[in-house]
Design a protein that fits this description.
This protein is α/β, with parallel strands linked by helices and 82 residues long. The protein is built from 1 helix and 6 strands.
């Protein structure tokens, strides 16, 4: 399925990640936005992950078996949901 961009209606959704965060605390809340894009076939949401670290390196989740890589290190100028 190809997802079309709806330009002006795309909502910027930022999720904060940090060392030892629970993966379900990041993935669970972001899932509906990705699913909304998939089911509608439109790019309604632009979910991003932002780290609190200054180096932008991947953060280890609680338990240390996985690392989450931030999609950006600086917040965009516009965020609709944080």
């Amino acid at each position: 399925m190809k997802i079309e961009s709806t330009s002006s209606t795309v909502r910027q959704v930022a999720m904060l990640i940090y060392p030892q965060v629970a993966s379900s605390d990041v993935c669970g809340p972001l899932e509906p936005f990705g699913l909304g894009n998939f089911l509608t076939g439109c790019w309604l949401y632009d979910p991003i992950t932002v780290t609190v670290t200054t180096d932008g390196a991947p953060d280890s989740i609680a338990g240390g078996f996985l690392k989450l890589e931030p999609s950006c290190t600086d917040l965009p100028s516009r965020i609709d949901l944080f």
